[in-house]
Amino acid sequence: MEPMTLDAAAAAKKAEKIAYENNKLHKRLCRLVGQAIGDFNMIEDGDKVMVCLSGGKDSYGLLDILLTLRERAPIHFDIVAVNLDQKQPNFPEHVLPDYLAKIGVPFHIENQDTYSIVKRLIPEGKTTCSLCSRLRRGILYRVADELGATKIALGHHRDDILETFFLNMFFGSKLKGMPPKLQSDDGRHVVIRPLAYVKEIDMERYAQVKQFPIIPCDLCGSQENLQRKQIKAMLREWEKKHPGRVENIFSSLSTVVPSHLMDRDLFGFADLKAEGIASKDGDIAFDEEPCAPPSSVIRFGATPQDPDEQD
Ligand code: SF4
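The line above is the sequence of tRNA-cytidine(32) 2-sulfurtransferase; the predicted structure tokens follow.
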């Protein structure tokens, strides 16, 4: 066998490193998605999970990881991929059916021209997203019924959850995020977000690694929500300048202390009496609140991190 040239050896080493990193990413995604599913009991034996596929990186990644996890799961559940073709101009309608047929996943494409409805009803220059998503939601719920789906899986990730949390706080005066699992607003379905613990940056990298045939999301010509854009930039800046801050905010969403907030529906302030029993959660009057020990997302579940996954 010919000895390798220096260039070839360097290229082989680089390829090996890339393969190692990609494998690590895949393991991390599977672990975090498995953990979120377990923590919130998102998928149960016999479920039929309808994965909503938009053609964006997140929904492709969600489907891909769920397919991997299904192979390893001790329970049986079915997956059906659903795309709503809203008839936006230049929507490449063959891309998703080709992809889904290639990977052998049962799928349904729902053709509904919501684009024309939105264009007809919303005056030029006004934002169309709210009506568009309302129409989409109604259609997807109907399709879930028709397909007999027991869960509707959406591709929202950790960053979507955090952005929604800050949007609600900054512009809606509410401590309210985007839940990993919730009943739909019509009360008929259970919506799940298995990517709840996954960072957007990991979904971006995963989409590149897997070379998903991404369909651009701006075909309708609508602008991305400016407020969400600003929040996203704020979080990215914090992530860069203050490592750990965003992680801690995210962890805090699952460690809520109602007695230390001000929602009278969540805590019975009116009936509060001194019980004569010392409590570490009691008020410490003038002392400064000690910082809680830093926590990380691993706290949510018992799935151990594979040493191969360490960054
Ligand atoms: S960006 Fe376009 S397709 Fe997406 S919700 Fe807004 S109007 Fe609908």
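Note on the example: The first strand starts at residue 48 and ends at 52. Residues 296-302 have pLDDT under 50 and may be disordered.
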